[in-house]
Amino acid sequence: MKDSPIKLSMTDTQARNYAASIPFDRRLYHQDIEGSIAHVRMLAKQEIITAGEAKAIITGLNSILKEIERGKLQFRIEFEDIHMNIEARLFEKIGDVAGKLHTARSRNDQMALDLRLFVKEEIGKTLDEIKALQAALVELAEANKDVIIPGYTHLQQAQPILLAHQLLAYFEMFQRDKGRFRDCLGRTDVMPLGSGALAGVPYPIDREFVAHELGLSKVSANSIDAVSDRDFIIEYEAAAAITMMHLSRLAEELILWSSSEFGFIKIGEAFTTGSSIMPQKKNPDVAELVRGKTGRVYGHLMSILTIMKSLPLAYNRDMQEDKEGLFDTVDTLQASLEVLAGIAKTINVNTDHIAQAMKTDYILATDLADYLVKKGLPFRKAHGVITQLSEYAVSKGKTFRELGRKEYRDFCPLFTGDVYDITLESSVAARNVIGGTSPQQVGKALRRAKRLIKG
Ligand code: ARG
Description:
- This protein is mainly α.
- The protein has 18 helices and eight strands.
- A two-stranded antiparallel sheet has the order 1-2. A two-stranded parallel ribbon has the order 3-4.
- α8 (207-213) links the parallel β3 (190-191) and β4 (218-219).
- The chain is elongated.
């Protein structure tokens, strides 16, 4: 074994430990080696190094990859980051020829490449996980296709809706989230090698070849931008923050619905915990944590925006701070998507409790107003009549259904016997507009959702 010629100048141990990124950027080992192999193949093809040298380097890199995967490589803090650790190990394994790997390259374009490969892969996984959650919501909606729940505004009962309609509202949010990640993918899928430290490199390299080897669709257009751009990380984190906001709203809804006050749903035991002192409780901890973890994902977005905001071109060491927030965002988002899909699969809908919540039928007030409008009364007038009627019904402790014909007619002569045909079912069925809550529209929306998940 040869000793590595890699010597970084920082000799103060505290400063060296402070500056080292290997404790976290080791996560990029795969991308780093993949990028180096593509780079070396190109150097040989362009006769910048010999085929024999390239072979020795690639064999060495592949064996280092195996060592890392088996947990056999001891990363060393004195080598600072993943790039230097791998290169130092390469020296130990193949000797001086290892020194040719870094020809026509800088850690600045190397790190930009590693991060782009990483984000590209993670976007693929994120999209799959969003889809899996959407599928779980669609399944829950289908299994409870006919269930009518109170729809809320201001968290006050507003109008009846199909449960499936509300679940599909979340489907739509996640559909937009996927669009944001796909959009970000287009700007991540760019090959920065060849930018060197910042100015490009003085060798006859073939950048398109490297891009092709790595499955990246374009090469960066400006070397200074290529080493100082972290927009793709900001975009991933921004899309993640919005997705977490959606997950948090869904989590909040599930928490409310599973409370004893609502009692609309029961979350499976596997996703709830008992209280240590109150035996009657089943706490929706997992959903609460999805809501809670949204905060740190927002935090990472603020952090990277702040890191980048006053950096002069091109690379600055501040940018090393891009990684931990990114990794935590990826992990938090993906785990949250997974557990919420898991929860959705265990949900039992309690139709008795839901019916109980709408027993007073005041939720049909808008339908009563619409009834009068259809009989010729201007909507504003009808609204006034029903406001008075509601106040009267409440004061008498009666539901709409329990009011007599005469009581109705005292408020407006347009009321006839068919007023009793107004039910939760008729209310929902009447809203048969595109995007509305009628069973016909929701049936269509479910079919569309299933197509979109498959596509
Ligand atoms: N560890 C560094 C980072 O994460 C890699 C690039 C270092 N480049 C340099 N010139 N010091 O940003």
